[in-house]
Amino acid sequence: MNILAIESSSRILSLAIRSGAKTLSQFKSQEKFKSEHIISLIKKVLLKARLTLADLDYIAVDLGPGSFTGLRVGIAAAKALRLALKIKIIGIGSLDCIADNIERGSGKDICVIVDARRSNLYCAIFHTTGKTPNFKLTKKLPYSLLNLRQLLKRIKSPCIFAGDGLSDYQELIKREMADLASFAPKNQWYPKADHLAKLADNLIMGGKPGTKNILPIYLYPKECQIKP
């Protein structure tokens, strides 16, 4: 089973091809991108994996929350490929992808915080059971739009923090939660296409064949989505 993963919710575009339990090829870039750029890059990662578009069985795409423009571009590319290839899409949230970066086994929860601007954060808290690779993530706090103070009030147990919100708030979290907070390294702050593909594979193997409504996850009220 071959899965193409498209991750475009952050400033780092990444693509990956997964077959079974193995990532065959991947690509990442911090340059600005458009839909037509993604299609050409997909062909390159397929070539590296020695596959063609016809060999794909599923497309996995990040639904956000994250960059409004990036999400629209990534989801549009995934939908175009679905129509052309007549295959199914698996939609995964960006905060799940970031949480999946973290090595399990510490017994700590994982708190993902992503900059949502206007002094807000896209955030979620995950409880982990088991160890890598046989772990399970369960949401203790569902995807939410909160400011830091609101979030910290909800944390009662030791947490590993991850996400680009740490760029602005890591020092404040250290001061406020010295006994409860630890921090993932910066290379684990962003969603990655290979983890997206792995999470999609888990869903497929668990009997969930596809996502019916492929829509971006927007946590801001509608009136905020149209303001600059």
CATH architecture of the largest domain: 2-Layer Sandwich
Low-confidence stretches: 223-228
Task: Predict the CATH topology of the largest domain.
Answer: Nucleotidyltransferase, domain 5
Strand order of the largest sheet: 3-2-1-4-5
Topology:
Layout: E1 2-7, E2 13-19, E3 22-29, H1 35-48, E4 58-64, H2 68-85, E5 88-93, H3 94-99, E6 109-117, E7 120-131, E8 134-146, H4 148-152, E9 159-162, H5 166-176, E10 181-183, H6 193-205, H7 222-225
Parallel strand pairs: 1-4, 4-5, 6-9, 9-10
Antiparallel strand pairs: 1-2, 2-3, 6-7, 7-8
Q: In a few lines, what is going on in this structure?
A:
It contains seven helices and ten strands.
Please tell me about this protein's structure.
The chain folds into two domains: 2-94 and 191-225, ATPase, nucleotide binding domain (Nucleotidyltransferase, domain 5); 102-188, Nucleotidyltransferase, domain 5 (2-Layer Sandwich), CATH 3.30.420. By secondary structure, it is of the alpha/beta class. It is built from seven helices and ten strands. The longest helix has 18 residues, at 68-85.
Attribute tags:
228 residues, alpha/beta, Nucleotidyltransferase, domain 5, 5-stranded mixed β-sheet, 33% strand, globular, disordered C terminus
